[in-house]
């Protein structure tokens, strides 16, 4: 039972738009961010997708920059353009098509975001990760989040895949969170723990799959950090991130993972290393990151990424069949 002021509807009955609006404003200061997407609005979007597709997908996939082909391998796809989905934002970044694809992959029901939302596009974090809550209400139990990232760990090469086993939330350090504002307990608790955010079984299975694919030397396990972007990092920032134990850096994923763990989804995430980050002033000038290179590397490695994702989904599906 909810014992906070933020929810007058502890049992989470659909159709009652009171969860967020009943906030006692003398106790907390609701931010516009927290009021954007009340439970019922998320529920309406989820209904639109499940009714329109005739499916309740079990696995959600977020395609990183240039990795949209992860959604192209979905069978019997029902495609929803973002602009046709009620209350959905639009994708503004090259390499993010702006479509939701629902169908089957290796026998499992899946929904994939071909295009994610980033903080630097001007969307608040709660809006960036709102589709994760839509996935949850569609029935999704597993989130697969992928991204393109710069490799800070000197052992990483361009084209390698880093399985995320942890993150450093730089936007969180700065006081920003997708969970900011009144908490709706129908999604999850006020203070979610994040220690075991990245599912260890899925990481281990992915390592085995990497071996079976013959790419074990290109697979690493490491720590990702999300910065606000859209600029790439300075050398001093990259040095600082490395000292903090960060292996790869990007501008996404962390807020999606926080939102997914808040609503108790199992998370698997990986970074495709699309560029090596310069961490010394003596590093070559051509170590500067650029989005064309990011997209080109992602395109080159999409086959391996698709195979990794397909095989892992197959294992999940077989285990639950
Ligand atoms: O994280 P994804 O969406 O894969 O994209 C990464 O690549 C873009 C920069 O080239 C940024 O959007 C960064 O976050
Ligand atoms: N922040 C950041 N995002 C990226 N996305 C792809 N490469 C990079 C990078 O080097 N830095």
TrEMBL record:
| Span of domain Nucleoside phosphorylase | 58-314
Q: Which BP terms in the Gene Ontology apply to this protein?
A: nucleoside metabolic process
Q: Does the keyword RNA-binding apply?
A: no
- Give the UniProt keywords, A-Z: Glycosyltransferase, Transferase
Q: Name one GO cellular component term.
A: cytoplasm
Q: Which residues bind a purine D-ribonucleoside?
A: 233, 275
Q: Looking at its record, which EC class is this enzyme?
A: transferase
InterPro entries attached here?
Answer: Nucleoside_phosphorylase_d, Nucleoside_phosphorylase_sf, Pur_Nuc_Pase_Ino/Guo-sp, Purine_phosphorylase
Q: In which pathway does it act?
A: Purine metabolism; purine nucleoside salvage
Give the Enzyme Commission number.
Answer: 2.4.2.1
Q: Which reaction does it catalyse?
A: 2'-deoxyinosine + phosphate = 2-deoxy-alpha-D-ribose 1-phosphate + hypoxanthine; inosine + phosphate = alpha-D-ribose 1-phosphate + hypoxanthine; 2'-deoxyguanosine + phosphate = 2-deoxy-alpha-D-ribose 1-phosphate + guanine; guanosine + phosphate = alpha-D-ribose 1-phosphate + guanine
Top-rank taxon of the source lineage equals: Eukaryota
Residues annotated for phosphate binding in this entry: 65, 96, 116-118, 148, 252
Q: Name one GO molecular function term.
A: purine-nucleoside phosphorylase activity
Stored NCBIfam families = PNPH, PNPH-PUNA-XAPA, PRK08202.1
- What does it do? The purine nucleoside phosphorylases catalyze the phosphorolytic breakdown of the N-glycosidic bond in the beta-(deoxy)ribonucleoside molecules, with the formation of the corresponding free purine bases and pentose-1-phosphate.
The record's family statement is: Belongs to the PNP/MTAP phosphorylase family.
- Its recorded name reads Purine nucleoside phosphorylase
